[in-house]
Amino acid sequence: MSGLLQAGAAELARMLRAKKVGAAEVMQATIDAAKLAHQRLNCFVRIDEDDALAAAKAADRALSRSGVAGPLAGVPMAHKDMYYREGVPSSCGSKIGPGRPAPATATALKRLDVAGAIQFGVLNMTEFAYGPTGHNYHLGHCRNAWNPDYITGGSSSGSGTTVAARVSFAALGSDTGGSIRLPAHFCGVAGIKPTYGRVSRAGAMPLSFSMDTVGPLARNVEDCALVLQAIAGQDPADATSSAQPVPDYMAGLSRPVKGLRIGVPAGYFYDQVDPGVEQLVRGSLKAFTDLGCEVVEVGLPDIEPWNSAGIAIIAVEAAALHSTWLRERPADYSDQVKARLELGLGVTGVQYINALRLRDHALKTWLANVMSKVDVVHAPVVSFATPTIAETDVGGGAKMNEILGKVTRLMRPVNYLGLPSLAVPCGFQSHGLPCAFQLIGRPFDESLLFRLGHAYQQVTDWHRRVPPKG
Amino acid sequence: MTDLAETYRNLVALQGVSLDEKRATLAAEVLQRQHVVEQAATRELAFEVEPAGFAGTLHAGTK
């Protein structure tokens, strides 16, 4: 049975439809594996064994009636504990939480339900999704499936490590400043941060209205495409969700990539990069060249102010959301999250509005100067060797801004521009921890990112490597 | 504590949150650095630019 848990979500869905395996059988194996993984990785907040097994038996019945099952029918998934399900409280990785059972189910969860996926639990995450390392001072730090001494990345820490550990077949994360792509890089899985507005945020815990995006982490690019297909599209419950049509991502996966132009940034993304990481990320370009893509260097505008402006926007919006609890329950925050929220109280209104005003100019500059020359930009996710949990345990102290800023430096500009970005594993660092590159595309062009990422995974096998069981 | 840190601490206190001296000093330094970067970046923005333009550019930016 453990062999079945090695399949990807799309592969498992095909096996279930072909009745090569039963959903209840897969779910039981998943739950057994989840319990074991949790002991080692501290990755779950809750496992809903009884409900999940009942749903899996119902899926088996649906699958036995030809044509009535959704594209993810019977596929077990656990999600970051910030996607609300009606009547159930979510921890949001915190001691406070929203403080009440959820009034409605998140749109992303409803759409996965319709597609037939079965949620079997909720996952550890950074407190209020406000931190990039995977530390959690309330629930305990989440641990990397490749080596539990190392960080998972955050804030979708449990999503990254359970997908890597071959427990969850895919998991929802959220990306406001790198929280999908960072765990994808650190844990060696694929993750898509969609265009701002591509996926409804309704029923997802907010951190920053202007920056929050919802997307999946999965074992491979095809699985990311399958899950995004299920959750993308306009939603009346989220005024910022886009009316742009959702293309058929799965149909586009196998289209040729020959002749596509891949831009390698001349500055910023490689300014402070560790030689080992640079070798892996630049090394991945050879596969694209072999596939017939044209790899070209592309100059970048001055991105540093966009990073700074992005930090200001998130800080203010998060501080506004948390202002009552900051006054009334300050002791219930970890020192790090409290320190970051306090920063937002000191950003002036003028600074915040100017950060938002600059955003349109920044995007126009990027589209005109970068995306007019290439189809996608290929870049590192993180510029340094994966650190241990202890090395990055900086709390809210003097080193906090330096360390966290370093982790998110290559992420924030993409969030600020609202662009889609796909993280794809591309090898292992000298200490055995995974490494990924990111492909940054034009707005709403997730389809091209999937096409390129999938083509890369057809000629490499990094995504098939499995962490040790410990 | 610097004047800037004191100002920041008072601003935060006005919002009902109390900070110790060390925390206020650290935060004020970070905020000042961000402010300088952002002021330089927004100096050349056209007078009429408003935040809502971003959504339009995002949608127009698709191929």
Structure description:
Chain A has 470 residues and is an alpha/beta fold. Chain A has one domain (4-305, 348-464): Amidase signature (AS) domain (Amidase signature (AS) enzymes). Chain A is built from 16 helices and 11 strands. In chain A, the strands form 2 sheets. In chain A, strands 4-6-5-10-11-9-7-8 form an 8-stranded mixed sheet, sandwiched between helices. In chain A, strands 1-3-2 form a 3-stranded mixed sheet. In chain A, helix 7 packs antiparallel against helix 16, helix 11 packs across helix 12 (335-345) and helix 11 (304-328) runs antiparallel to helix 13 (349-371). The two termini of chain A are 19 Å apart. In chain A, 59% of the residues are buried. The model of chain A has no long low-confidence stretch (mean pLDDT 96). Chain B has one domain. Helices cover 67% and strands 0% of the residues of chain B. The mean pLDDT of chain B is 92. Chain B contains 3 helices and no strands. Chain B is mostly helical and 63 residues long. The chains are: A alpha/beta (470), B mainly alpha (63). The A-B interface holds A 195-197, 240, 242, 244, 302, 304-306, 308-309, 311-312, 323, 326-327, 330, 339, 342-343, 345-347, 351, 353-361, 363-364, 367, 371, 396, 398, 401, 418, 442-445 and B 8, 11-12, 15-17, 19, 23, 26-28, 30-31, 34-35, 37-38, 40-42, 45, 49-51, 53-59, 61-63.
